[in-house]
Amino acid sequence: MGQTIVSDAHGWGSVRESLWGGVQEYGSFTPMNIYAALPTAGSADHDGRIAQAARSGLTSFVELVQQDADLTQRIHDALQETDAHAAASLAGGAER
Question: How do residues 38-91 score in pLDDT, each as one tens digit?
């Protein structure tokens, strides 16, 4: 067992990228309108409801991913802080 707990900053970047990478683009999806191709009564309203439901779902998804990314950042920060405290306490008792 070593004397230092290590939280790799590069590893954190990798985790953040795997969580967040591409989410903004994915969340910006907008469904095409069908009422232009099928101009019947209610088509525009139908398209609007579908688009709103899709936007709402995607917004919720993006928010959840952001919460996950923020949580992993806090975990990383806590590990870094714990590592610094452990290193400081070990340095005080080390022989010189």
Answer: 677 777 787 888 888 988 999 999 999 989 888 888 888 888 888 888 888 887
State the Cα–Cα distance between residues 16 and 8, nearest whole angstrom.
13
Distance CA 87, CA 5 (A): 8
Tokens of 74: 């806090």
Query: Using CA atoms, how far apart are residues 95 and 47, in angstroms rounded to an integer?
Result: 73
DSSP 10: H
Give the span between the Cα atoms of 96 and 52, in whole angstroms.
67
Query: DSSP string of 22-70?
Result: THHHHHT--PPPSTTTS--TTHHHHHHHHHHHHHHHHHHHHHHHHHHHH
* Residue 13 contacts residue 70 (beta carbons within 8 Å): no
